[in-house]
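Consider the following assembly input.
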Amino acid sequence: MNETRTPDSRRRSERSRRAIYDAALALVSETGYARTTIEGIAARAGVGKQTIYRWWPSKAAVLMEAFLDLADQAADGEHVFPDTGDLAADLRLVLRATVDEMNDPVHERPTRALAAEGIVDADLGARFVEKLLEPPLQLYIGRLRSAQAAGEIRPGIDLRTAVELFVGPLTHRWLLRTLPLTHAYADTLVDYALNGLAPRD
Amino acid sequence: MNETRTPDSRRRSERSRRAIYDAALALVSETGYARTTIEGIAARAGVGKQTIYRWWPSKAAVLMEAFLDLADQAADGEHVFPDTGDLAADLRLVLRATVDEMNDPVHERPTRALAAEGIVDADLGARFVEKLLEPPLQLYIGRLRSAQAAGEIRPGIDLRTAVELFVGPLTHRWLLRTLPLTHAYADTLVDYALNGLAPRD
């Protein structure tokens, strides 16, 4: 970072950064991850290639940041899981929001392209999981842990596996497009899965 | 079909067909679905391009048949779901077999390449789901239906959603490679999900 930058140059930098993210995500949506290039991003963002190389070491780095920024926007900067004391209601809220995100083309197209590339490229897939997937999964686990402490989930349940009962079916339906992804589906998943984790009477 | 073929020519045809399937799946594994071509398959199988065009109208058609053949082999030609009367044991058996298949490179690599392409190409994805995914899911549903009739699954459970509690998490873990896919994981999934579908006492 250049400590002597003026407010104007910071604004210009911020504008360029935003243009680069937008261009990167648009290109990934249109041509796929593999065919997106630094040159293409620069041309579409209206910046020089060197501007991108000054800020990021590689295409993978700029794309990962663009995806993190997209995820941040979808989460409205919130990185907490709701905890109203009503576990089912909290899970429905989060799963419904995920459904909305998965159905929103702005989010769906680039994320789908990234997921597809991660499925065949194990290294990229591992970064995708570490940076983009695991952090939200850990928020679920935190919420399930407090539910387990409150006796709403039976002792001995492995929470890492439990969280997959919610996100696994949703992702399956989304990625493979088997059937429509709706709020009603999210609610049913919460009902069935939570019943599976509840204490046995 | 040529009714006047001799046994020798039928054997030659069968050998060619097998070579074409093998070449198609190997190419998809190595270069991805999009970059696999009829020319490439013919060269690798050691047959003329016209042999392929005589039997299949398109690359998509030959690849879909190669995948159907692969799935048939994995299922050992069996297209029934076990029904021993013990629902949990039957589900564990099938999910463990799916884990083994997903961990077998012969099956994994081409299926992963096909799934990745289907994720970004909606038309291919729809064919993949219709031909390869829905038929086994319907077998699950049949087994769950008889369990529901026997009172082991509570009335009102939507069986199409229920089946996703088993295959969704498994596919999520496989495609995204979040954590190892093991028999123990399959067993835990059956335990949690089946508990979620069981009658409430």
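Chain A has two domains: 7-58, 75-197. Ask yourself how this observation constrains the way the partners meet.
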